[in-house]
Amino acid sequence: MLQMADSPFFDRIMSNLRASCKYYTGYPKDLGPARVVHFTSEREFVHLLHEGYPMVVAFTIRGNYTKHLDKVLEEAAVEFYPHVKFMRVECPKYPGFCITRQRKEYPFIEIFYSPEQAPNQGRVADPNITKYSVKVLPFNYDLSAYGFREFFKRHGIQSSDPK
């Protein structure tokens, strides 16, 4: 007796489902190279902000929910690459950076966008310092690529090539 799981017909159905169903998440996807940047320093963070792309930053601690969050971030990072950067901060490793966000519940996500060079206001003590203004929004939508897309649309954040 042929079991359904071993049949080529079943494999074709599942393959077709994975290829055609955009929001099917029940099967591991081949996402290619990792696109989520892991936080290593505030200097690197500021450098990425200066590239001018919106940046989704997940502030995390270790836990089961973080594993789910990592998968969602990877999937979304691949979908929005290169127009939106995704970064994950492991707060136990970088407590100083996380504490500045003044949040007590982990994990949480914030979107940093629209870095613009601020005009010089008055005298600048060091001519090598450039000031930037960055808008920060808490992310409170559905935790999925779809949720990020809706959030970007709602807030007018450019997340893909203009068509």
TrEMBL record:
<dbReference type="InterPro" id="IPR036249">
    <property type="entry name" value="Thioredoxin-like_sf"/>
</dbReference>
<protein>
    <recommendedName>
        <fullName>Thioredoxin superfamily protein</fullName>
    </recommendedName>
</protein>
